[in-house]
Write a structure and sequence with these properties.
Number of domains: 1
Number of helices: 6
Shape: elongated
Strand content: under 5%
């Protein structure tokens, strides 16, 4: 009798929300510079939660299941990442944090002026919506790829081995040939 696998939604939600929030916050976001460790960690967490909550399916979970769980976690995580990062960026821009950096750049460049589209991006002007969609797309791709890797790693780490069969393997019925103490056949 084949068992149906339980839903991956709850572990993916937990892993995805944690992935998205930690990846969006300043200072924490820098951990993703180390091979997207926060994103991989989200997929790893989701596979751990899935395997912990459904121990009857532990031995039957494949690497493909871990990849699928990581993909779902990455999808949720990318959406949360963008949903958290956009307001944070807006408030940073609104209170002048990014504008000060832009002014410092203009001072460094001297007579050269920063192109208007760079100012629009920094201030959330006309190109703000386009930047939002590009950001969402990039974060979805990054999250889905690396969280899938984390899901596969999680299956490799947390999946228990299949139960060992206590019966020895069946033999063909013919005994092995007699070898003497010196390794030659016969006496």
């Amino acid at each position: 009798m084949i068992q149906e696998k339980p839903s991956m939604i709850q572990p993916a939600l937990v892993g995805g929300v944690l992935l998205g929030i930690t990846s969006a916050f300043p200072i924490l976001e820098w951990f993703n510079c180390a091979c997207c460790i926060l994103v991989i960690g989200g997929g790893l967490l989701a596979s751990y939660l899935y395997l912990r909550d459904y121990p009857t399916n532990v031995a039957s979970m494949t690497y493909g299941d871990g990849g699928l769980l990581g993909l779902l976690t990455g999808l949720i995580g990318g959406l949360v990442w963008t949903a958290v990062e956009v307001p944070l960026t807006y408030f940073k821009t609104r209170f002048g944090m990014d504008l000060q950096e832009l002014t410092k750049l203009e001072d460094l460049l001297g007579d050269y002026r920063v192109p208007p589209f760079v100012e629009d991006i920094a201030t959330g002007g006309a190109l703000g919506l386009g930047v939002l969609f590009v950001t969402l797309f990039v974060q979805l791709v990054i999250s889905m790829v690396f969280a899938s890797i984390g899901g596969v790693i999680g299956v490799a780490l947390f999946r228990s081995k299949a139960p060992v069969d206590p019966q020895p393997p069946a033999t063909s019925g013919t005994p092995p040939p007699f070898t003497g103490g010196d390794g030659n056949l016969g006496p």
